[in-house]
Amino acid sequence: MQFRSPIDLLSQTADLCFPQLVNDSCRKPASLLSDTMFLHVTLSCISLITVVLNLIIIISVSHFRQLHTPTNTLLLSLAVSDFLVGLVSMPVDILRKTSCWYLGDFLCSLFMYVSYIITSASVGVMVLISVDRFVAICDPLHYPGRVTERRAKVCVCLCWLISALYNIILVKDELIQLGMHNSCHGECVIFVDSIIGTLDIVITFIAPVFVIVVLYMRVFVVAVSQARAMRSHVTAVTLQLSVATKKSELKAARTLGVLVLVFLLCFCPYYCFSIAGTELFDRFSEFVYYLFFFNSTLNPLIYTLLYPWFRKAVKLIVTLQILKPGSCETNIL
Question: Residue ranges of the G-protein coupled receptors family 1 profile domain (predicted)?
Answer without folding.
Answer: 53-303
